[in-house]
Amino acid sequence: MSEQTLARARAGDQDAFRELTDPYQRELQLHIYRIVGSAHDAEDLLQETLLAAWRGLERFEGRASVRAWLYRIATNRSLDALRAHQRRPDEERMTHMPEPTRWNEPVWLEPYSDVLLEGIADEAPGPEARYETKEAIALAFIVGLQHLPPQQRAVLVLRDVLGYRAGEAAEMLETTEASVNNLLRRARAAFESRLPSTGRERAPLPNSPLERDIVGRFAETVENGDIDGMVALLTDDAWVTMPPLRHAYQGHSAITAFLRGSAERRGAPLRLVATRANGQPAFGCYISVSEIDIARAYALFVLTLAGDHIAAITWFADSTVFPQFGLPQTLR
What we know:
Layout: H1 3-10, H2 14-21, H3 25-36, H4 39-55, H5 66-84, E1 102-103, H6 139-146, H7 150-161, H8 166-173, H9 177-192, H10 209-223, H11 227-232, E2 234-241, E3 247-250, H12 251-266, E4 270-277, E5 280-289, E6 294-306, E7 309-316, E8 330-331
Parallel strand pairs: 2-7
Antiparallel strand pairs: 1-3, 2-3, 4-5, 5-6, 6-7, 6-8
Helix pairs in contact: 1-2, 3-4, 3-5, 4-5, 5-8, 7-9, 8-9
């Protein structure tokens, strides 16, 4: 950080302020998303963070880096937002669905476009980090975070993802180091129990021939309405989940019943457009409207791969996320 740039920013130079903060905006937005689980809210809270930083620049003493100072503001804005808003799933959507394998706790979650991951500074995580960046954006990781109480969630991200020391995290959260260590112990115990089994095969590399083959075959089966072919691509213990709905289906039999019921209720074929979310292959799904010869935005599927099979399908029915993926609302 240039002292001259900081002095200009304090004097009201907006260009200087942008010079200080622009390098961190993408990573701050991702940090906020990890805590709140919503890509839309992360975008809004990033703007709130930058506005608060601009207004509070005089109080920035320079004891920590600009990056750490921005993370402090972003973390506390995120916690304030979680305290202020309690979302509930749409009960209407829960009707006419087969009995699930398991009832999950409702989790409000949106997928995160890989486009938003581009341009994040390649900063090495701090000395306390336990998770790699790729692992810490995967859907299973984000889902696990959303099950933690807000304070535990923030501490785990600050310590185990970003690698801040306990004292640094305590200063950001305006609490004691002992409190941070206690929150982290409880967060780790609850969080790690929710992560996928370590015995699962590794996913193929992004955009590798194997990944393209699996994803291509999945798209073909969906567009052809071939439910048996789709299920054959799944691992024996695969899951289908639909955040924030509590329904979760595991195994070929339960998933087949769910997919057949969905196809019957839908009554029209799907068209898919490939994209990526949370570092994983994904599809924007469109449902055909035969009377007007278009297909309208319907849902977004995110695939979790394991070896040469699909271990999970996460089904997001909220098509308002499509613009973040560069996906249109309708297809001709």
